[in-house]
Design a protein that fits this description.
The structure is a single chain. By secondary structure, the chain is mainly alpha-helical. It has two domains: 8-83, Response regulator (Rossmann fold), CATH 3.40.50.2300; 89-172, Response regulator (Rossmann fold, 3-Layer(aba) Sandwich). The protein has helices spanning 20-30, 45-54, 66-77, 85-105, 119-129, 134-141, 145-159, 164-172, and strands spanning 8-12, 35-40, 58-61. Strand 1 (8-12), helix 1 and strand 2 (35-40) form a beta-alpha-beta unit. Helix 2 (45-54) crosses helix 4 and helix 6 (134-141) packs across helix 7 (145-159). It is elongated, with a radius of gyration of 18 Å.
């Protein structure tokens, strides 16, 4: 790994001596620029979150469709994170809990970029930061999913963000 310096490394968590989180961290230390995508036979939220925290940039079922695996590798190489929705929900829950803890310790000033958003867009950002899906947001706001998607497109443009995970991280900061 240190010698070849691959841009993306695809690993099966069933490999002997990978030792889950410790092994992923050790491999990542060999070449920090290499992005690791992990495959597992039984993906779950807890393990997925642990693997992201260990440095993985992707986490998926070993039965992933080859075309989707190719897309995963391309997206991860571009700097994106590739995980299932369940892991994202778990990540947002963890992030939300951490944010609440940090806010108790020292309240932060809101990012001035939020001022560029309309009240509806701010409401959607708040719901996204809490882990709500487009369908859940549409139901709560009594609008269509298409309307939610249109608002999200504008939010991404105004805040110069590429996806809902980055938006949730931004909002929970």
């Amino acid at each position: 790994m240190a010698e070849l310096k691959p841009a993306v490394l695809l690993l099966d968590l069933a490999l002997p001596r990978l030792v889950k989180r410790g092994g992923v961290s050790a491999i990542q230390r060999l070449n920090a620029a290499t992005k690791i995508v992990l495959l597992t036979h039984a993906p779950n939220e807890k393990e997925g979150l642990a693997m992201l925290m260990a440095g993985a940039r992707g986490y998926s079922d070993t039965n992933i469709d080859p075309a989707l695996l190719k897309r995963t590798m391309v997206m991860v190489q571009k700097g994106e994170i590739w995980v299932g929705r369940q892991v994202i929900h778990r990540l947002l829950d963890e992030l939300s809990a951490l944010t609440k803890l940090l806010k108790k310790k020292s309240p932060a000033k809101p990012d001035p970029r939020l001022d560029s958003l309309t009240p509806r867009e701010r409401e959607i950002v708040r719901l996204i930061s809490g882990g709500a899906s487009n369908k859940e947001i549409a139901g709560q706001l009594h609008v269509s999913e298409k309307t939610v998607k249109a608002h999200l497109t504008e939010v991404f443009r105004k805040l110069n963000l590429s996806d809902r995970l980055h938006l949730a991280l931004f909002a929970n900061r």
